[in-house]
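Make up an example, fold above all:
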Amino acid sequence: MINGGVDPTEYVTTPVFQGAVSFSAAEIRALELMVGYDPIKDKPEQPDNPYHGEVWRKAEAKRFTSAQQKGLKDAARWYVEIEGVDLK
């Protein structure tokens, strides 16, 4: 995004999206989760975002385990902070 001259905060500072956290793909994969490119296009409820990514559980899992949930929480760092919200 930055190489393309796009400010990433523009995608997470709208009335709908007020903040964002970040974490490394390595941290996500260490939790046995999948992370990848998942562009948003032509969804009436969301603006197009060719840079969008997502985190998924493995196909056989029905939900994130409690260890994965804790790992995500521990790995999360503010990218665009929401005032008055504590991540920990």
Q: What stands out?
A: The two ends are 28 Å apart (CA to CA).
